[in-house]
Amino acid sequence: MIRTVGLRKEFRTRRATTTAVAGLTLEIPRGRVTGLLGLNGAGKTTTIKILATLLRPTAGTVLVDDLDPLRDAGAVRRRINLIAGGERMVYARMTGRENLWYFGRLYDVPGAVLRPRVAELLELVGLSAAADTRVERYSRGMTQRLSIARGLINDPAYLLLDEPTLGLDAPIARDLRRVVARLAAEGTGVLLTSHYLAEVEELCQHVYVIAGGHHLTAGSPAELTARAGCHRSVRVTVTGAGPEVAAAVESLAADLGAAAVLDRAADGSLVASLSHPGEIAGPLAMAVVGAGGTLAGLEVAEPTLEDAILALNDRAGMVSA
Ligand SMILES: Nc1ncnc2c1ncn2[C@@H]1O[C@H](COP(=O)(O)OP(=O)(O)OP(=O)(O)O)[C@@H](O)[C@H]1O
Questions:
Q1: FRET pair for 138, CA 20 to 30 Å: which of 14, 59, 178, 301?
Q2: H or E stretch including 64?
Q3: pLDDT at 321
Q4: Domains detected in the chain
Q5: pTM to 2 decimals?
């Protein structure tokens, strides 16, 4: 387990002090994908860099399997690795294979283990054919894929993923998600930050939401969605809708206490969305037809983690990024 208690990081310049992380207490157990969410500047990357031993906290504690990174940096580094989507973490002058070999040796992976692992990882990220090409000739996506292989080279007990699929083609991003889910199922502790909330929803069993370096809330994606008060929404498209259809929809929404948004599409159809915890598709369709409208479409959308995060941040008074 990685545990942080009261983690704090201040960046001081001559002119100002920025508090990037303001007392975070987190638990990242093995065998689970834990999410860390927040808007731009919330403190996610700073937290991950502290856990990766790249930054020293100003205050608070971090323990990695009861080891203190400040005292046992070597042992901690052997247990963790970092994949950061936005950063080039490999050497341009070396080939893909040479990079993996180099980083593997840095992590003290014995040669007999490293040789097959390098080949396996190159295969995993689809770089076997380009293994002996220098990275300076790789595309951005290829470099990013090599960074993913580099992040797995020490078979880490804890994998820190900071926007790992940023800029990746959809099939490679999907493969990476599969690898992450498999590693967690096999016992790796994963911490994930991502702006792709569908990715977080798919992978994470537990999510911490932070804002301004503070803890806002935590729970499973389903718990967060329920807590944020986000409901399933039903959207109908109605052709030939006179004012009486709009009035019927508004009256139904008022009776049910449902949130309603009514709009006109470019072709003049009425588009009405009602959001409510109960089953409202039937009553809504009946109200439309009863008022003389023709139902051209009906969609039911389950609330997403994205809806929940936006609602939670709005409630906390954060400005959407
Ligand atoms: N080296 C630094 N010096 C000064 N301030 C910094 C430094 N690094 C980060 N900050 C500030 O700390 C705060 C948190 O930044 P951080 O990068 O951790 O946020 P984030 O949640 O990862 O944001 P994003 O989603 O944009 O990547 C921001 O206000 C940022 O400007």
A1: 178
A2: strand 59-64
A3: 38
A4: 2-226 (3.40.50.300), 233-302 (3.30.70.260)
A5: 0.81
